[in-house]
């Protein structure tokens, strides 16, 4: 995940640098033209530079957008889409990468972290993704439980505590409902190939 972020950052820096180089090159050519034609007024200089600066920014943006598309990503520009991505990333952070057991309600966590009313976040997410935040969280919690069952030495009681389930029974029932198999069955897959849920 961090490698992907670094790659994206590298592409962004490359695109911006390229745009800056193009802009710089254009400015050099502009100076030569000015010297040859003896155009020295500041007003004309500003009129020439502004479109070049805008074109440089647009060029850099388009190069970045195209570079992201080639690796299967897209550049998110509208605020609502950005907020939805923040919701998804916040859930991933809490469910999959938290060092401590989850003790806070997800609704409170998201509302505090993103500085929005949870009802607004929930409605926005549902409208965009076709799934409510609660179901999205459950899908990722079950995915994390699968990972812990197969790859860790934690027992079911410890996993249920780690993932903030009220009881082992609650975890087991939800797991069976989502996956169609029992936690015991998944535990037996420890030495077999692990197939994750298709959660995006």
Number of domains: 2
Give the N-terminus to C-terminus distance in angstroms: 14 Å
- Supply the helix-strand structural class: mainly alpha
CATH architecture of the largest domain: Orthogonal Bundle
Using only C-alpha atoms, the radius of gyration works out to 25 Å
Strand content: under 5%
Any idea of the CATH class of the largest domain? Mainly Alpha
CATH homologous superfamily name of the largest domain? Answer: Homeodomain-like
Quickly count the helices.
9
Q: How confident is the prediction overall: mean pLDDT? A: 75
> How would you classify the quaternary structure?
single chain
Q: Biggest β-sheet: count, sense, barrel?
A: none
Précis, in short:
By secondary structure, this protein is mainly alpha-helical.
Any key phrases for this structure?
single chain, 200 residues, mainly alpha, 9 helices, 0% strand, elongated, disordered N terminus
What does this protein structure show overall?
The protein is an all-alpha fold and 200 residues long. Helix content is 74%, strand content 0%. It folds into two domains: 69 residues, no CATH class; 112 residues, Homeodomain-like (Arc Repressor Mutant, subunit A). The protein contains nine helices and no strands. Helix 3 crosses helix 4, helix 3 packs across helix 5 and helix 6 packs across helix 8. The protein is elongated.
Strand and helix layout:
Blueprint: H1 2-37, H2 42-70, H3 79-96, H4 106-114, H5 118-129, H6 133-151, H7 156-162, H8 168-179, H9 183-187
């Amino acid at each position: 995940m961090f490698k992907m972020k670094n790659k994206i950052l590298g592409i962004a820096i490359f695109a911006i640098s390229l745009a800056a180089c193009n802009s710089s090159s254009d400015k050099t050519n502009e100076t030569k033209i000015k010297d040859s034609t003896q155009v020295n007024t500041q007003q004309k200089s500003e009129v020439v530079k502004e479109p070049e600066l805008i074109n440089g920014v647009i060029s850099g943006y388009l190069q970045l957008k195209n570079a992201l598309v080639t690796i299967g990503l897209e550049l998110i520009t509208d605020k609502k889409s950005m907020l939805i991505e923040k919701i998804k990333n916040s859930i991933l952070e809490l469910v999959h990468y938290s060092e401590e057991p989850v003790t806070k309600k997800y609704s409170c966590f998201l509302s505090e972290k993103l500085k929005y009313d949870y009802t607004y976040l929930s409605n926005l997410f549902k409208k965009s993704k076709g799934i409510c935040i609660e179901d999205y969280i459950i899908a990722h919690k079950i995915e994390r439980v699968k990972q812990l069952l197969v790859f860790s030495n934690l027992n079911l009681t410890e996993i249920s505590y780690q993932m903030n389930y009220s009881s082992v029974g609650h975890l087991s029932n939800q797991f069976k409902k989502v996956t169609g198999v029992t936690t015991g069955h998944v535990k037996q897959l420890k030495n077999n190939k692990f197939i994750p849920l298709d959660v995006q």
